[in-house]
Structure formats: structure tokens, C-alpha cells
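QA checklist item 7 of 12: single-chain prediction sanity check.
[x] sequence parsed
[x] length recorded as 471
[x] structure emitted
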Amino acid sequence: MSGLPTGEYCLFFDMKTGRGAYTGNIKFEPTYRGGTSCDDAELVSVTAGHATTGVDTKLTYQEPGEAAVAVADFASDAEEGSLAVDGALVQGEPIVVEVGTDRVGEWVSAFAHSTPTALGSWYRIGVDGTVTVPVPADAPTGAHSLVVQDADGAVLGWDAVTIAAPDPSSPKRFSSTPAPLVTGAAQVGGTLAVSTPAWTPEATTVGYEWFIAGTDTALGTGDHLLVPSSAVGATILVRATGSRDGYASTSVDSAPTAEVVEARPVPGVIVRDTPITIPTKAGRGVTGPDTLELTSRGGARAMIQPGTTITSSDAGWDGTLLPPTVVTDGQALMPATVDGSTPVVALAIQVGDPGSSLTLDQPARILLPGQAGKHAGFVPAGGTFTPITTPCVADTLKAATALPVAGDCVMSVGSDLVIWTKHFTVFLAYGAKALPVTGADLMPWGIGGIALLLLGAALVVTTRAARRTAG
């Protein structure tokens, strides 16, 4: 991904060309080096493959399926010296060949030409643009041409080399030394941890040193590092040094981390009984990383989730959120009847912005103290009363997440009334007062069921088991 401008890209993997072409069930698996996502990784690798056992499809590491074939006329395909070889070639020891960072992740093969002799099988070019290949213990000594080919057999480069017999007095070299992997948050106070894939042969001891990447500034040793404030704005790498009796001590650096940032605040709860303002643009704002709990002296509360996007019906809204504020004339907002009864407002509160209606992309919890068993409803800015008729499944954020846009539900919790909502406006808790009974509403005695008798000032309800006939 080196050299690409920042932005969004579509990754395309062509499985229909080259060696090991496959046109069946294809899946992808991204891996990250120097980070945990496309946002902070130094290298993003996408591997694809297919293997089937029964009905389960699994991802596999797609290596070229055929043995590499040496190109005889390599000198006409590339210039001598188009590869960089690190050190002398010694029988039975690995050699590092620099192919180029423009080919990171590609599969290659290597040959020592005189016979020619294959230097192992297939190898992937690492993030640093190099590939480590072993020199066979029985490779002919003397002058050779080291040739590297891609998976399609094209010559990537070659150079003149000499293979020598090992010096019995010289230590051996590890044949495979994968780079260490760093995990953790690259922020001040965060902890970075390192692990090292197995080396070949296995290192008996591995030590770690942490540095500011690109410098000699040491930050610490060990398999963990507490990120210091001095690293802000820089990246960090770890150097693994492995050793084993009879082998040369070898050091390998990890890929650098993402750029170190200041410590992020730990999300918590901000409790306010006064207005709070969030940043807005064109009537829309987003709350911060903390839960906001807006309270009133009477005990009413509105709890807003972290990162909630709030949109006002007024594009000029300045982002001010009022805590629950008692509306003294709440009865005047109600219609004369609701479901055939006269509503009696017990508590009315304004939440959010009195000049507009606010919609939320996450549910908020409103608590009306002491109103358990009451009905609930709302009056939007400039609108009319709407009862809330949906009962809440549970008093939890998970249950309320299923609410539709601008939806509500209500339930009693202890002695309180709880409303989960995706909008802010005026909310009311109310009871129902029975309408007065008129003479036309009374049932005659001749009809079985429930009979109502108006006896003086008392309303008496009796039941009759069977129809009575006169006489």
C-alpha cells in the first residue's frame, strides 16, 4: 500500500491469471502489519484461497501450486546487478536478497545458475522488499549467477555471486528469522506487546529493545512497553535479537507502529443540571465519548449515549441541550379527551431544545420520578399531543436500539416511569379521569350482565347472572 494517497480503495484479487489460477469459491482474509486496521497499519495484506472439507469452506494460504522452472536465458531478461545480495553465499546457510518494496507480498523462486540449482521452493517478499532463501548444503562452490523469478517465471533480477564452503570456525546463521509482531495501543500510557514467530532453527533466547522508529532513541527493553509521552508524533518499533549455541546472534526489526497520540480520555459519565452545548453544523451535532446524564432538581433525568448524532428541525440550532425542565402549563398541551377519558397531567418536562424537535440516532433514556403506572405521551415543537403506546421490552439500551426513527416506548420501573426515545421534545406523564355518566348510559334491568344504578350520590355496580323477566 506504499505510496497511495489517503482515501478509500476497492481491493481486487485476480485469480484467473498466473500460476495456480482458480475460478471457484474465492474468499479474502486481510492481515495487518504495524497496526490493527487499514487506518493505522503499515502494510495490509489480502490473501485468498480455497479448501473444502464436507460443507465447510476455509481460507488457505494461496501458494503457487507448481514447482518453479528455471529460465535458462535469464541474462537477456534483466541486467546484472539488478538484485542486491546481503553477504556471501555459504553452503547450508540462508542469504537475504533485496528484490524491491514495489513487490511486497509477491511469490518468488530463486536459482543459482551454473547447473542451475534451485534454492528451495517458493518464498514471499517481505514488507522490507527482501526475501530470505537457503543455500543448499550440497550447492556447488564457486562462481554462480543468482536469479530471482516471479510466480509466472519472469526474471525479476540477477547478480553474480560466489558460493563458498562453510568455515568450521564460523558460527552458523538462522535460516528463517520472521520479524516480531507488535500489538497494543500506540498512545501515551498504552501498552505495546511483542511476539516473535518461530525461527529456524528455534532461538534459545530472544531479547527485545524498543526504539523510536528511524532513530537510535531507546525506549526500553522486554516484551512489553508502556508508551511514553516523548514518543508523541513518532512511530515505535521493537528489535528482536535471537541467539543459539553455534549460531550467529541475529537481530530483526518489527514494522513500525501507528503514530503515537496523546492519551484518549476514558469514556465515563458527565452529569449536568445546567445546559450543555455540543459542536454543531447546519443543525446537526455529535456528542462526545462520554455518557451525558442531564438532571433536574425534581429528579427527572435524560441519559444520552456516547457518540449520539442529534439533528434539529431548525438548521440554526446552536447545539444547546437543556436538562429536563418542568413545563408548568402541561395540561394546556393536552386534548380534552384521550381514549375516551379526560387526561390529567401529573408531570410535563421539556428535554433538549424548546425551539425545535431533536432526533437522535441512538436511544436515550428519560426517567420521570414517581410516575409509575401513568400513561405517557409527547408534544413536538409546534405540534399536537401524541400518546406513547408501545411498551418497552426491557429497560436496556440493547432492547431500545430496535426502536424506529423518532420512536418511543414506555414502562414502569419501581416507582418511576421510564421512556426510551429517539427524539427530544416535551414529554408528559398523565392519568385518566372517568367521564361523567349520563342517564342514556344506564343499562336497563331487563338486560343481563352489568347493571348501573345511580343511588343518591353513589354509583353502584352489580352483576346479574341471568336475564330477568317482568312479572
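[x] summary fact logged: Residues 275 and 322 are 5 Å apart (CA to CA).
[ ] second reviewer sign-off
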